[in-house]
Amino acid sequence: MMKRGILAATALLASLFASQRPAEAGATLDAVRARGQLVCGVHTGIAGFALPDARGVWQGLDVDLCRGLAVALFNDPNKVRFQPLSSSTRFTALGSGEIDVLFRTSTHTMLRDATLGLRAITPYFYDGHGFMVRAGAGIAKASEMAGATICLIQGTTNEQVTADYFRSQNLAFTPVLFERTDQAAGALQNNRCDSFGTDASQLAATRASMPNPSDWTILPERFSKEPYGPYVRRGDDEWFDLVRWYVNALIEAEEQGVTAANVEEMKRSSVNPNTRRLLGVTPELGQALKLDPAWAANVVKAMGNYGEMYERSMGPKTAVGLPRGVNDLWTKGGLLYALPMR
């Protein structure tokens, strides 16, 4: 009887653990392949990251990352549907299955990663909270904004960062919350706010889109760490791994000097074992992710490496005009560092 009791207790515990297991691994990849299209959550509209051009074609770093993932899956950058999402709806849309992956200026934080039923994967862009004010306001630093009215985007880390800063300085301020960046920018220009508080890259993008960019100053201080990265649903390790190593492959390609222009030549002639693995000359990386052996080579050929994506969307020759800075490779003083792909 004791033996039967132990067996019964063991079975009960096993059933309890089984009920707590995450969703079956592979569900997202299988669904995407069956659909024949990736559904990618992006910003509702911010220059440099995700914004439709004059023809209605989405452009930007996040957009290119979505297209590149479609190449890894289907060898076709057009097999992706973009779902514009606000800051307050992005995580709900991912959790409900409305989208497959979120590439949307989303900061990795502990509480988001641990409490939302989602997984933050790996940073691809490093930023920090800042403030933009009128150039003629005579404001040189944030501590001079006592009593200011500040435009903020609802559902972002910027709400808390702003409140924490003013509280720490024992300064009063009045927040005015908006659903979208363009609404906050319009309010700022119409004198409803004294300042706009958000990440510096988005301030630069907002300023570039204004009729007279020189009328606005982005204060030099940064008040937070804002590493952007993709999010996926918790419980699908296969999909998590695929997206993580896809992002790493873009950085690894830049580290190895593989570009859209030379990828085919390097695939034919390189004797570097790391390059041969990355480009699928030896097939083990593709096999590990259930992808074509040449998946990374296909991505770089179609979209470029990480540096090419950055320069096309965010670099000094664009309207946003951001130098690489911390978003450069670790070998050049930046923070981007690909995990070993072997």
Radius of gyration: 23 Å
Share in helix: 40-55%
- Describe the strand arrangement of the main beta sheet, using strand numbers: 10-9-11-8-12
Secondary-structure-based class equals alpha/beta
Contiguous helical run count: 14
| Main sheet summary | 5 strands, mixed
Kindly state the number of beta strands.
Answer: 14
First-residue to last-residue Cα separation: 52 Å
Family: Belongs to the bacterial solute-binding protein 3 family.
Signal peptide: 1-23
Pfam families: SBP_bac_3
Domain Solute-binding protein family 3/N-terminal: 37-266
Structure description:
The chain has 342 residues and is α/β, with parallel strands linked by helices. The chain contains 14 helices and 14 strands. It has helices at residues 2-19, 27-35, 61-74, 90-95, 110-115, 157-168, 181-189, 200-209, 237-255, 263-269, 273-278, 284-289, 295-303, 306-313, and strands spanning 38-43, 51-52, 58-59, 80-85, 101-102, 118-120, 125-127, 129-134, 148-153, 173-178, 195-199, 216-218, 226-228, 231-233. The strands form 5 sheets. It has a 5-stranded mixed sheet, with helices on both faces. Strands 4-1-5 form a 3-stranded parallel sheet. Strands 2-3 form a two-stranded antiparallel sheet. α3 runs antiparallel to α13 (295-303). The longest helix has 19 residues, at 237-255. Belongs to the bacterial solute-binding protein 3 family. InterPro entries: Bact_solute-bind_prot3, SBP_3_CS, Solute-binding_3/MltF_N. Keywords: Signal, Transport.
